[in-house]
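Revision sheet: structure tokens.
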Amino acid sequence: MKWDTPFRDRAEAGQALAAMLREFREQADVLVLALPRGGVPVAYEVANALALRLDLILVRKLGTPGHKEVAMGAIASGGVQVFNDDAIRDLHISPTAIETAIHEETLELLRRDKVYRGKRPAPTMLGQRVILVDDGIATGATMRAAIVAVRQQAPARIAVAVPVAPAETLAMLRPLVDQLICQLTPKPFHSVGQYYRDFAQTTDEEVKTLLRLAWRREPRQTGAPP
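Predicted:
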């Protein structure tokens, strides 16, 4: 494999990540939570390979005005908000711009919850071991929001598992979780997409299809209620 594009696509990355998570195989108290949308194909492969339950943690990055790819923070289900104070200060982002971004991303978060989950209730995390999965981490803003949101629901343990991330971001996240699993920590790190040959945007339909496949398997694989 070439170092600059080690993964063919998110499915292959998920399969590689599953091999690093074999200790969790067929554990009834383990819940895999994907960060939509790109984290869903990765998490699906992890859950499928290890016979684990799969669900979602809804998180939205707050992009800076005019540069949406640059995170000034993130929001998550349950009213969680985390901010990159350095970016906000250095880019002179106004409170009004922050509130506008929060409003817009909250609407998208609610839309995704309705589209992806439908009438299915959110998973219970109390006393569970939770594995948060994404297709990669750059600044860590969205993953940090996800960790805060999950921590509020009193899980037994929280692990973060991703195929690729910069070492400095992992160092920032490590004190926030019980376990951190990452296959690649390239240096220099430019963007998550650089390490995938196919990094096409995951669609709503792909997310819904993978979730329904996983949920249909639950009773047979884990004994979880349908």
